[in-house]
C-alpha cells in the first residue's frame, strides 16, 4: 500500500506519495509538486535530495555499510579483482569465467592510445596538474574514437575503450611529465600489473611485478569503484543527461573529482601529514580545523554520508599496514596519521560533529608505498571510479523516465530595473 505525506499549503491539502527502496530508505516523491502547488523545494548541496533511484550501490552512512550490486565491499576487497568488480558494476552481475576472460581480452585489445594523442601530451606545460590533463584527454578521445550510433555494441566498445585506455593515458602523462620514454601496454600482463609496468618500467631499470603491490592496487581501485550519487558521479549524470557522448560526461566527472573536498582530498591529506611531520605542529593543526573562523579542515576527515567510520577506510588502513610491512617500508607519515586519528577521535569537536577518517586518510600512504607521486593520487582515484561513473551513466540513459537535469532556483536579485545608458552612469 502506498504511503503518503500530507502537505498543507494555504487552504489546500496535498498528498505526496512516499517511495521506498529495497533497504527501507524512504523518499517523498515531489515530481508533481510544482504542477500541483506552484512550489519548488530548496536544498543547497542536495543533502536531502534523491536525484534518482538506482540499483548499483547501497550505502548506510549511520552503520558504515557499502555494497556494490548487493555485495559487501569487504568481500569484494578480499576475493575480487578490480576488473571483475568493474564488470559487476557495469553489467549488474558477476561475470562467468568465460565472460571474465572475454572482458580481459577486450581490455587488452583496446589498451593502445592513438599515436597522434601523444603530441597533445607533449605540449601541456610541464607543471600541469595530471587531473587537468586527464580530463582534457578523455574529452579528446571523442575526436579520435567517434561513436557511430548509440547502439548497444557501440556503447560497449566505448566503455571498454575508456576502461582500458584511461590507465595507458594516466601512465603516459606521468612518463611524459618526467621527460621519460613512454612504456606501451603489454598483452601478457593483467590490468593492474600492466598499469604498474607502464608507470615504472624504464630501459635502465626494468620493473619487477610484486604480488603484494598488485593486490594493494586492486583493493585500492575496488574501494573507489563506486559511491552512489557523490559530486563527480552527479556531474557525470547531469552532463550525460544532455545526451552528450560518454567521453565528455566522464571528463566532467574527472573535473569534479579533482576538487580538494572530493577526490583531491587524498593529495591534500599527504600534504597535511607531511607538513605536520616537518613542523611538528599537530596540536595547532587540530585547533585550526576546529576554529570556525578558519576555513581549514582536517583533510581525510568527515563525509557527507558517513557519520561513523567509512568502511573503505577500515580496509584501506589494513592494506596500508600489510603493504608497508611486506615491502619493509617505514613511512613516518603513517605514524603521524595514526596519532592524528587517535587524537581527533578523542576530541569533543570531532565526536559532536560525527567526524571520522574517510577513505582518503590512509590511501595516500598506500599510494606512496607503491611509488605513485603525490600529484597522481587523484588520477588513481579517477581510474578506480571510472566503472562506477560508467555504470551510473548507463543506468541513467537506460531509464525510460530519463530527463534532462535542470534544477530551478529561488531568484533573489533586483526586480525589473531599467537599463541606464553609459553616459548617465
Ligand atoms: N575538519 C573540521 N571540521 C569539519 C570537517 C573537517 N574535515 N568536516 C566537516 N567539518 C565540520 C564543518 O565545519 C561543520 O561544522 P559546523 O556545523 O560547526 O559549522 C560540520 O562539520 C558539518 O560540515 P559540512 O561541511 O556541512 O559537512 P559536509 O557533509 O558538507 O562535508 C566534507 C563533507 C566536504 C567531506 C567535509 O567533511 C570536508 O571538507 N572534509 C575534508 C575534506 C575531505 O576529506 N574530503 C574527502 C571526502 S571523501 C571523498 O570524497 C572520497
Descriptive report:
This protein has 425 residues and is mainly alpha-helical. The chain folds into two domains: 1-40, Rubrerythrin, domain 2 (Single Sheet); 52-399, Orthogonal Bundle (Citrate Synthase, domain 1), CATH 1.10.580.10. It contains 18 helices and six strands. It has helices spanning 33-37, 73-79, 82-91, 97-109, 117-123, 130-144, 152-177, 191-200, 211-223, 231-240, 246-257, 265-279, 282-290, 311-326, 332-346, 348-352, 360-370, 377-398, and strands at residues 3-9, 12-20, 26-28, 57-60, 65-68, 71-72. The strands form two sheets. A three-stranded antiparallel beta sheet has the order 1-2-3. Helix 4 (97-109) packs across helix 7 (152-177) and helix 12 packs across helix 17. The longest helix has 26 residues, at 152-177. The N and C termini lie far apart (64 Å). The model has no long low-confidence stretch (mean pLDDT 95). Acetyl coenzyme *A binds at residues 261-263, 265, 289, 297-304, 353, 355, 358-360.
**What composes the largest sheet?**
3 strands, antiparallel
What is the CATH homology-level superfamily of the largest domain? Citrate Synthase, domain 1
Bound molecules: acetyl coenzyme *A
Helix-strand topology string: EEEHEEEHHHHHHHHHHHHHHHHH
Q: CATH fold name of the largest domain, please?
A: Citrate Synthase, domain 1
Label the overall shape: globular
Helical residue percent? 40-55%
**Spatial extent as radius of gyration:** 23 Å
What is the CATH C-level name of the largest domain?
A: Mainly Alpha
Taken together, the total number of domains comes to 2
Secondary structure tally: strands: 6
Average pLDDT value? 95
